[in-house]
Specification:
253 residues, Rossmann fold, seven-stranded parallel sheet, 17% strand
Length: 253
């Protein structure tokens, strides 16, 4: 018996969808039949990147991808974005909280502004998207938020990032309880080191040291993270809620 994931007529919003894991999330959900809404913060090339991706997806299936700009750290902008999803698509079925930034420094060198900037996007941004997303989400939907191996391992120089991601993982456990009456599930994915443009900036010596901790002896791919998100939003995960799924190649220690 073949098992397929069919998300036809479902609407998925992916934050930070202009590149990297977010862009792959959009492609994966779209391939499963969902209509996708690509969020970007309208910084640098993010608008052009998101519009290029939407054009790619709409060429495959007309009127199946939208682009909405919003800085997730701005509550009013997120509220407007969610109302835009409702106006355009009638509501939301899946929310993927992927938007994140880095401002790595040791605590001794970390400025209060860099501490706050990371928490504003990586933690408060998830709160904003969940709060206002739930207002337009249909019952029986799913929320997947991106945690991180950093929240578990406590990497040097990532106090702000690790704290924010640990907060996200705790928030999803709470949300799983609060949303259960509506049949909405909430889970977290905690990726390890994934082969993205960001990972390409890691010095080769540091990368070699990381690989020593990964039993599979390689970096993960954006597709391997996106496919776990797809599973968590599918009927195959209908009894999975309040969990953190580690996608890290077996990293321990």
């Amino acid at each position: 018996m073949a098992i397929t994931i069919n998300l036809a007529d479902k609407v998925a919003l992916i934050t930070g969808a202009s590149q990297g894991i977010g862009a792959q999330m959009a492609r994966t959900f779209h391939a499963a039949g969902a209509m996708v809404v690509l969020n970007h913060p309208d910084l640098g090339t993010t608008r052009a990147d998101a519009e290029r991706l939407a054009a790619e997806l709409n060429a495959l299936r007309p009127d199946s991808a939208d682009v909405l700009a919003a800085d997730v750290s701005d509550a009013d902008a997120v509220r407007t974005m969610m109302q835009g999803v409702k106006a355009r698509r009638g509501g939301l079925d899946f929310l993927i909280n992927n938007a994140a930034i880095l401002r790595d420094r040791t605590i001794a060198k970390l400025s209060p502004d860099d501490w706050q900037a990371v928490l504003d996007v990586n933690l408060t941004g998830v709160f904003h998207c969940c709060k206002f997303g739930l207002e337009v989400m249909r019952d029986g939907g799913a929320i997947v938020s991106m945690g991180s191996i950093a929240a578990i391992q406590g990497f040097f120089g990532q106090a702000n990032y690790a704290a924010a991601k640990a907060g996200v993982q705790a928030m999803m456990r709470v949300l799983a309880r609060e949303c259960a009456r509506r049949g909405i599930r909430a889970n977290t994915i905690a990726p390890g080191v994934i082969d993205t443009a960001m990972a390409a900036t890691i010095p080769e010596s540091v990368r070699a040291e990381m690989l020593k901790h990964i039993p599979l002896a390689r970096l993960g791919t954006p597709a391997e993270v996106a496919e776990v998100a797809l599973f968590l939003c599918s009927p195959l995960a209908s009894y999975v809620s309040g969990q953190t799924i580690e996608v890290n190649g077996g990293w321990r220690g």
